[in-house]
Amino acid sequence: MTAADARAMRRALELAAQAGAAEEIPVGAVVVGPDGDIVADGRNTREESHDPTGHAEINALREAAASVGSWNLDGHTLVVTLEPCVMCAGAILQARISRVVFGAWDDKAGAAGSMYDVLRDRRLPYRAEVVGGVDEQAATVLLRSFFERRR
User: Fold this and answer.
1) Taking residues 18-37, what's their average pLDDT?
2) What per-residue confidence (pLDDT) applies to 46?
3) On the CB side of 146, how many CA atoms lie within 13 Å of its CA?
4) What is the mean pLDDT of residues 83-105?
5) What is the pLDDT of residues 95-125, one digit of tens each?
6) Known catalytic residue at 57
7) 19 within 8 A of 26, measured Cβ to Cβ
8) How many other CB atoms are found less than 10 A from the CB of residue 106?
9) Which has the least CB within 10 A, 62, 96, 129, 130?
10) Rounded to an integer, what distance in angstroms lies between the CA atom of residue 95 and that of residue 80?
11) Are 124 and 90 in contact (CB under 8 A)?
């Protein structure tokens, strides 16, 4: 993990906490450019936006594409607090994200190695490098706390 990854994960965890405070599932995501600078970020907004695609990764990818001026984010890294789902993994590949760094594994819906491995599927025309389990405990605590409060 690079210093830029660590900085981005800290920001993603802040965004996840903000999402939880807004009664969204606490997930945050950050897009880091090839130079190591944060290009964009996002958090879950599905409940407040009434948008089923309002996942942190999708929001961060949209902001990054607008910031860069291109849908093609080759050379960029997506840092996210929870392993991406199938929808987000598809969007990550469509955006040509080169690397994905995530915190907590998602044994129920993860598409970066736990349930599915869409991001590294050799049958697809584009693949991303995947680094999982970064700051896993911090991300897991946010998620567990959120769901325990809801029970």
Assistant:
1) 97
2) 98
3) 18
4) 98
5) 999 999 999 999 999 999 999 999 999 999 9
6) yes
7) yes
8) 19
9) 129
10) 15
11) no
